[in-house]
Amino acid sequence: MQVKVNVLVGAVAALLSGVAMSQELVVKIGHVGPTSGAIAHLGKDNELGARLAIEELNAKGVTIGGKKAKFELLAEDDAADPKQGTAAASKLVDSKVNGVVGHLNSGTSIPASKIYSDAGIPQISPSATAVEFTSRGLKNTFRVVANDGQLGGTLGKYAVTTLKAKKVAVIDDRTAYGQGVAKEFEMAAKKAGAQVVGHEYTNDKAVDFMTILTTFKAKKPDVVFFGGMDAVAGPMLRQMKQLGIEAKFMGGDGICTGELPKLAAGTMGDGQVVCAEAGGVEGEAKKSMDDFRAKFKAKFNADVQIYAPYVYDAVNVMVDAMVRAKSAEPAKYLPELAKTSGFKGVTGVIAFDPKGDIKNGALTLYTYKGGAREQIAVVR
Predict the structure, then answer these.
(1) How high is the pLDDT of residue 281?
(2) Which end of the chain is more exposed for a tag (fewer CB within 10 A), N or C?
(3) Is the peptide bond before 199 cis (omega within 30 degrees of 0)?
């Protein structure tokens, strides 16, 4: 008799276990960023932000439509290369991800977004700032940072009205991001009354800028603006120092990193660099960001570079939409994602406009002193 009871108990336990397993919902979140190449430090920073969000969501035991969700991160490397970016996007589509957070660069985010759109998969970029990313009418495309119009435009105005620049020189790296932010800077600086004494071009893998900078030196600009990333900006700053160019050096979020002083090899003067991060927190929200940075440091033994907290928020915003829709199916939660309004993240309150841009996006202006970033102001 006891044997039969034990068999019955075992059968019931197995049945209950099977029911529990059937109630578990596997949700795949894709992340893409450059985890190899010159800006791998930024891509890895973003990926760690995603990993932290996924770990915390699993620890919370989130339920979607009455089922306990198990979140899985599918991370891909695009090396900041558009071709590799589209390959990564196709791989994630084939893996049937429920949503994608990424890519880091505008130049990879834009071509990849068409692939996600065709597959009906929502995409939130934590850092792509090119206006084109959200201006093409794709219904699945969102971002949680301000765009180049706000970024470059604010810097252009700041160069003239605050730094009192009368002559500015512009360099861009011909990427979607670099060209976009440089164009907006140039237009805003001109509108504010500055003379643009030259606009030169390089690429995102260049290391020698002597010809460009020598040309600029003769024109004596008050500001040199660079549209590109920190891996190129560092050597450019070193060569400006070698040539004795004392102009202020300005750039967007691509140069506004903790690594820039190292890449410039100690050649930056205090206050010489002014840059803007396409996001920003102030007031009560600043504590949330400070707490996140401390948690990130404790978890990964690394400082936040720039956009890890925006990745973290993007993952959580996506999951919040799934919870509200009671479904992780892209077609079902996408309408809820588009209606996001008032989500309180570590980077501030997130709400999307009809294009998928963040409403009332903030910018944070920084300079560097003693080899460390120092905040100047948060502007909107």
Answers:
(1) 73
(2) N
(3) no
